[in-house]
Each structure stands twice: as C-alpha cells, then as structure tokens.
Recover the amino acids of this structure.
C-alpha cells in the first residue's frame, strides 16, 4: 500500500508540474516597474498556462470591437429611428417659413333675390375671389430659424445616441471578455481540482485522509460546475444585449472574446476636454438656442398678420366689376392668446438654460469620476498582473506540492486554489473595468480609440 501511494504521489507531482509550472519569484515581485497605462500581462505571471478554451457557440472568435461598433452604428434600430427624426426636422424647415395657402371663393351678389337679376341689375354679379394671408414681416424668417434650431437639436441628439451605442457595444464586449477569461480559468482549474479530488479519494480509501477532505474536493468540483453554468447563462444574456444593438436574432452566436484593445487616453485633467466635446452639453446648448428663437417668434406673433384679396364680378352683358381687398388682424384677444405664449416661451428658455447648467455640472462630475476610475485601473491592473496573480500561483503550487508529498492540509490547497481563481478572474475584471472606463470617456469626448485605427487587442 505504501509503495502504491508513493508511486501515485510521484505521478501526481509530475502531472501537476506540467499543469501548473512554478513561477520565477523575481517576476512575481510587486516592485517591478511597470507602465500603469499600457500594461501587457507577462506570460510568467500566470500560475497555470491554461489549455485552449473549449469551443463556445460555433467555436469562433469574436470580431474586434471596432467591427461590432461599425455594425451597430449601421444597424441599430434606435439610431435608424432618430436619423429619420432628424430628416423629418430638416423637411420642416422650408414649410415653416412658407406662405399660407391662398383661398379661392365663388361670390354671388343678387340684388333681387330670390329673383335672379345678374345681367339686369348693375349691382348684381357673380365671380371668383382669391384671398392670401400674409404674415407680418419677419415672422416667416423667425419660423425658419426655429425649425433650423430644432434640426440642430435633433442632430445633437443623434450624435449623443451614436456615442452611447458605441459605448454600450464596447462595455458589453469588455464584460464578455471578463466572463470568457473567467470561464477559461475555471476550465483550467476544474481539471486541476478533479485531479486533486482523485488524490483525496485514493488517500481516503487507503485510510490516509479524512472524509472531510474527500467531501470538500467533491464540493469544489460541484461548485465549479455550478459557476460554469451561471457563466453560460450570464454570457447568453450579454450576447442577446449585443445582438439587439446589432439588430440580429437574439440567439445569434458571438465567438469567444480573447483580448481587449489597449486604451489610450488624453492627459489628465479631463474636465476641459470633456466640457469642450460633450455631446450632452452640445445638445442642451442647441436647445437653449432653439428656445431663444421660439421666444423671438412668440413676441413677433403679437404683430398682426395681413390679408390681401382680389375678385372679379360678372354682370352679364355689362362690364365686369373688379374688387381689391386689404385687411389686418386685430389682436383683441392677445391676453388669452399671444401673451400666455410669450410667458411660456420665456419659461421654456429658462428651463433650457438650467438644463444646460445641469449638463455642464454632470460633465464635470463625469470627468472627475472617470479620472478616479482610470487612476485606479492604472494601479490595479499592473498590481494584479505583476503581483497578485503570480503570488497566488506560487501559493497554490506550494500548497499542492506539500499536500501531494503528504505534509500539507487539503483545506489549505482549497483555500489557495480559491485565491488563485479569484486572482485570475480579478485581473480580467480589472482589465474590463479599465476598458469600460475608456469607453465611457469616449462617450463624453467623442474621439476614436485605437481599435478605430485597426489595432487589435492582446
């Protein structure tokens, strides 16, 4: 029995060394100098070089995010709807300043009614008349300016939505990356854990281990399978959200996300560049301009419109009678009509100005938040890559070797295994958070990232 146990231990050590190689302590040192922005995870920082991830969906690899962004900008129904709204607003500019349609009437004037006297009486006649309303000078131009301002508002709304769709695609891509990296770590760890659980069972059968260790080994295998199922469901939800933006069937397959593009950002502080390029501020600013034009138009509406008309009356054999008319509106009910509209336009302008102030305050707050998030990512990503992940791998390697040699406790192996797994998934989450922070920054400053230049991820 002792000989069989010793041979089994040697075999497990040999297999384990191939599965999880020991790491160089110097490469795991947290004091290694590293660029906090552009960090490439070293190969030696991984406690276990994982086997290739099993095929996901159709086994393909997801396209780079710039391709998905381009597809979303072309296909997203929300963008298509707002583009139609912008075109609708453009089409309304010309009618806004057009003259009202003229009105044609048929006039009958019969002095001897009910007896027909046209052609007999000088004042009896029949003929057409045409009437044309003429807005007070300046009103037509003011209405066109209001309509053009509305076009600008809609165009800025479209730009904001375009940026938000781009952000959503990139954020979903980053979350899928984190899930796929966790799945890869779980798959690799599951093989290691099943091997250790087999060792525990052998020891328990030989009376060399407690039942608790065997139960814990099986429990960890079951928990890993549980987490893999949860990841599959969570990933399906994220892919469905991506497919909505791409206007694809909800169950369309999106391949494995193996890397993220390296984010590049402007130098801090970001407040000035955010205030200058924010689409939200631009939209609110155009709304203020539109409100100003509406107020000018409302005040012009106090001016009376004109009415011009002409007609001809036929009197049988007698000479026809030509009539010309010129009229003007009487603003007798301005207190119920135009004055309340002016007050409403003034309140609309005040509300628009306050909304602009709020958009500026929001942009300043977003700039401060994103700076803090970016600084955190700049320190956390290298900390995970250069210290936490390799150190967790070293701890797991040492605990496993001690247990296989009969000197350690299986609970320590399980604890170190969990730490290693958390470190692997934590690094992926930190990388995803950094990329998401960059994607949110692009939403407020509107510049393109490195993937727009055709550069791919790691």
């Amino acid at each position: 029995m002792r000989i069989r146990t010793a041979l089994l231990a040697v075999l497990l050590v040999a297999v384990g060394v191939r599965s999880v190689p020991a790491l160089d302590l110097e490469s795991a040192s947290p004091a290694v100098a590293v660029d906090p922005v552009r960090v490439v995870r070293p190969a030696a920082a991984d406690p276990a070089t994982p086997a290739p991830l099993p095929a996901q969906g159709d086994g393909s690899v997801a396209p780079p995010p710039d391709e998905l962004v381009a597809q979303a900008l072309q296909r997203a129904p929300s963008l298509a709807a707002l583009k139609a709204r912008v075109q609708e607003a453009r089409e309304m500019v010309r009618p806004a300043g057009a003259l009202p349609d003229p009105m044609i009437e048929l006039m009958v004037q019969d002095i001897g009614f009910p007896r027909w006297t046209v052609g007999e009486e000088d004042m009896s006649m029949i003929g057409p008349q045409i009437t044309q309303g003429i807005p007070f000078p300046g009103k037509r131009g003011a209405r066109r300016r209001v309509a053009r301002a509305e076009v600008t508002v809609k165009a800025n709304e479209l730009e904001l939505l375009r940026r938000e769709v781009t952000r959503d695609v990139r954020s979903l891509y980053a979350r899928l990356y984190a899930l796929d990296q966790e799945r890869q770590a779980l798959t690799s760890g599951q093989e290691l854990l099943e091997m250790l659980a087999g060792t525990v069972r052998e020891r328990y059968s030989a009376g060399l281990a407690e039942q608790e260790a065997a139960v814990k080994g099986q429990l960890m295998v079951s928990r890993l399978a549980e987490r893999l199922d949860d990841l599959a469901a969570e990933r399906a939800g994220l892919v469905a959200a991506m497919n909505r933006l791409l206007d694809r069937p909800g169950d369309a397959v999106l391949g494995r996300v193996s890397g993220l593009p390296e984010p590049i950002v402007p130098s801090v502080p970001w407040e000035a560049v955010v205030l200058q390029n924010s689409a939200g501020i631009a939209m609110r600013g155009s709304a203020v301009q539109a409100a100003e034009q509406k107020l000018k138009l409302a005040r012009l509406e106090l001016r009376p419109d004109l009415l011009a008309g002409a007609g001809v009356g036929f009197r049988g054999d007698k000479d026809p009678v030509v009539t010309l008319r010129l009229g003007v509106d009487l603003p007798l009910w301005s207190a119920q009509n135009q004055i309340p509209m002016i007050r409403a336009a003034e309140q609309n302008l005040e509300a628009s100005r306050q909304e602009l102030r709020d958009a500026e305050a929001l942009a300043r707050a977003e700039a401060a938040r994103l700076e803090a998030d970016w600084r955190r990512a700049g320190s956390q990503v290298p900390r995970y890559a250069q210290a936490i992940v390799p150190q967790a791998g070293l701890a797991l390697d040492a605990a496993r070797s001690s247990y296989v040699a009969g000197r350690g406790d299986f609970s320590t192996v399980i604890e170190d295994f969990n730490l290693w797994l958390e470190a692997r998934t934590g690094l992926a989450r930190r990388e995803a958070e950094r990329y998401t922070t960059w994607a949110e920054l692009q939403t407020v400053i509107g510049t393109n990232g490195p993937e727009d230049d055709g550069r791919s991820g790691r």
The two ends are 50 Å apart (CA to CA). Residues 139-205 form the longest helix (67 residues). The longest strand covers residues 318-328.
